[in-house]
Amino acid sequence: MTAVTSTVTTDAYEGASPEAAFEAAVAADERIEPRDWMPDAYRTTLIRQMAQHAHSEIIGMQPEANWITRAPSLRRKAILMAKVQDEAGHGLYLYSAAETLGTGRDELLDKLHAGRQRYSSIFNYPTLTWADVGAIGWLVDGAAITNQVPLCRCSYGPYARAMVRICKEESFHQRQGYELLLTLSRGTAAQREMAQDAVNRWWWPSLMMFGPPDDASAHSAQSMAWKIKRHSNDELRQRFVDICVPQAETLGLTLPDPDLAWNEERGHYDFGAIDWTEFQEVLKGNGPCNEQRITQRRRAHEEGAWVREAAAAYAAKHSAQHTQHAQTDGKATA
Ligand SMILES: [Fe+2]
Ligand SMILES: [Fe+2]
Question: Which residues have a beta carbon within 5 Å of ligand 1, which is an ion?
Answer without folding.
Answer: 57, 87, 90
